[in-house]
Amino acid sequence: MLDESKGEGRANLFANGDVHALDFNFECSAKLKPSFGYETYPAKWKKPGEELVILLPVFGKKGNYFTCNFKTDVKDFAYLQHDGIMSSETPAKFKTWMIKHDYDPEHGKNIPTKPEPQLAETKQ
Question: How many domains does the chain have?
Fold first, then answer.
């Protein structure tokens, strides 16, 4: 059917103040569009560590949503993307970046800010 979608992907999962990489596959009854930028979606565990139920917007219908189950493989690291290249780093290092950039999608801070430039110390 043209209105369904299935596939696989990678993302970071933000839960209870932690961040972990997540590989997933899905088979949804509605068309699933790729996320853009730092876009996040609410989710809850159907089977902890194995299957998430994701709440996704119906595009073109503001305020309408559908659910899709993602089969998951939770990692012990976080994904990092820079200049189009994906790599990984420890959750602690990723959390440090989140704090520096005031980024916390669990609490409505969905777009990272640029950190304040640090003044260079002058030697006397």
Answer: 1
- Residue 88 maps to a domain: yes
Which of these ranges, 20-24, 29-33, 78-82, has the smallest mean pLDDT?
29-33
Q: Which residues touch 35 (CB under 8 Å, ≥6 apart)?
A: 11, 41
Q: What is the pTM of this model?
A: 0.81
Note the pLDDT tens digit of each residue in 24-68. Answer: 999 998 888 778 888 899 999 999 999 999 998 887 888 889 999
> What whole-number distance in Å separates Cα of residue 96 and Cα of residue 100?
6
Domain range holding 50?
Answer: 5-107
Cα gap 111→101, rounded to integer Å: 9
Q: Assign 3-class secondary structure to 26-57.
A: EEECCCCCCCCCCCCCCEEEEECCCEEEEEEE
The reply to whether 17 falls in a domain is yes
- Has residue 84 been placed in a domain? yes
d(CA 102, CA 88): 20
